[in-house]
Every structure is written in C-alpha cells, then in structure tokens.
Amino acid sequence: MKIKKIGFQKSNSTQDRDSDILNPELEGGSFFWKGSEIGILLLHGLTATTAEVRPLAKNLFKEGYTVSGILLPGHGTTPEKLSQTHREDWIKASEVAYYKLKRECKSVIVGGESVGALLALRLACEHPEIKGLLLYAPAIQLGASFLKILFFVVLSPFVFSVKKKIPKDREGLPWQGYKVNPLKTGVQLLKFQFEIKKLLHRIYQPILIIQASLDETIDLNSGDIILRGVQSAVKESYWMKKSGHVVILEKEFEEVFKKTINFIKRVFR
C-alpha cells in the first residue's frame, strides 16, 4: 500500500478544505427529521459523513419514522482534525444524539455502518431500553492480516496517513469522506474493536446484521463474532452478494432497505 505523508499546515480556503474530501458537494452534516414516536438513530462510519446514511434515512423517514444522523467529531473537516480525536469523542457524540432522540420519541432503534455499527453496539450495552440494532458491515474486525495491522500501528507515530484505494465499483457512489486514513485514528479503531468485543455479552436487543460478500475492508467473520457474543434472542443476518463495504449505498440498496423495514416492523409487532 502506498504511504502518503500529509503535513499539518492548515488552510482556510474552500478549495484546500474540499481537496481532503471525496464528493464534497454532497450533504454530510447532522440531521433530525421529525416523524412518529418511533425514532431511528443512524451513525456513519470512520472517515465518512452522514452522506453515507442519508439514502437509508430518507427512506425510513418516508415510512413515517423520526430519523436522526450526526456528523461525528473530526469528520467532514480535515484528516488532521480527525487524527486529533479519540474514540471517546465519537462515543460521547453518539450518546448526546441518542438522548436527544429519546426525548422526542417513545421508542428508539439504533443503527450504523461499519464503525457506526460499533457505536450502535456501544450504545446498546449501556442502554437496554434501546429496542433494536441495525448493523451494516459492522467493523468488529478488519480484513487486513495481523502483520499488516501491526506494521501500521508501529508506523503510526511517524507517518500521518495512508492513501485510500477506492475500488472501481465504488466510483460514482454518493459516499462522502476523506481520501486518506489517518494512522492514529486507525489505532483508535483497533482499541475500540477490542473494547466492543468485551462488551458484547451485555447486549440483549434484537439484532439485524447485513454484510456484503465483496467487502474487502472488514473480516467477513465479523457478523458471526457479534452473533456469538451477544445474548440477543432475535438475531437476523443477511448477505448482499453483489455489494462491497458501503452496503447501504451500493447496488443492492433496495434489498437492504426491504430487510431493514421488515426487521423494524417485527420489532414493534
């Protein structure tokens, strides 16, 4: 993988700021759309923005639900700012968003894509009143080898980031986020994954897991790791055979949404 050093010089120009972000023209900020007394909180993945969850959110809102999404700290700005955040910053932001939604709704379901799914799991173990979990390509374990991960951990104090390799089949997707992966942020992710694995036994809520067969970002055993670890009586797991990691934006979106809405209806049956 090509390693790219990025300086910490800051610029206030829109051109320089946008150069850090893929598809800067998309809407990527926080949103809160009021619907019924059933609320759904959607959390985006690492280096992304809420553009990642907006198509799903809009469809859920059309079904009548109250839907919320937040831009996590360090995201939608610069990779340097993300590198300065801690996993606790992401956790606290998701907690604030959950409490806001809970004040407006009688019942809440929490979901997330990739690292957003880990944040959803974290909320569920602390808040047993959460009614269900929507986990899309949950990043409980990375797809890279142990040696490659170790290499980047050792490198992280000296090299700022690695350039992302964007698969050709992802080109044109309405995904917004950084073009690089800050290595210090990657170390935070590894620590977060370890913590979540230890907390899985505290989760009892119904769970929907949707993974993608063509996902090269996470270990394809990630869903099984979660299902084996939780205490949930209701567990649903599905595979999208033609999709990659950003499963909620790819070509099988309609099937993903169908599985999602059916799960939500079963939870509140």
Can you walk through the features of this model?
- With 269 residues, this protein is of the alpha/beta class.
- The chain has a single domain, classed as 3-Layer(aba) Sandwich (Rossmann fold).
- 37% of the residues lie in helices and 19% in strands.
- The protein has helices at residues 14-19, 54-62, 79-83, 87-104, 115-126, 146-155, 183-199, 222-229, 253-267; strands spanning 3-4, 21-22, 31-33, 38-43, 66-70, 107-113, 132-136, 161-163, 177-178, 180-182, 207-212, 235-240.
- The strands form 3 sheets. A 7-stranded mixed beta sheet has the order 3-5-4-6-7-11-12, with helices on both faces. Strands 1-8-10 form a 3-stranded antiparallel beta sheet.
- It is globular.
Architecture per CATH nomenclature, i.e. the level-2 architecture: 3-Layer(aba) Sandwich
Quickly count the domains.
Answer: 1
Largest sheet: 7 strands, mixed
Secondary structure tally: strands? 12
Rounded Rg: 18 Å
**What's the tally of helices?**
9
Structural class: alpha/beta
CATH class: Alpha Beta
Query: Per DSSP, what share of the residues sits in E-state strands of 2 or more residues?
Result: 15-25%
Rounded mean pLDDT is: 92
In which range does the helix fraction lie? 25-40%
Pattern of helices and strands: EHEEEHEHHEHEHEEEHEHEH
Termini distance? Answer: 48 Å
The shape, in one word, is globular
**Uncertain regions spanning at least 5 consecutive residues:** 1-17
CATH topology (level 3) name: Rossmann fold
Give the strand line-up of the largest sheet. Answer: 3-5-4-6-7-11-12
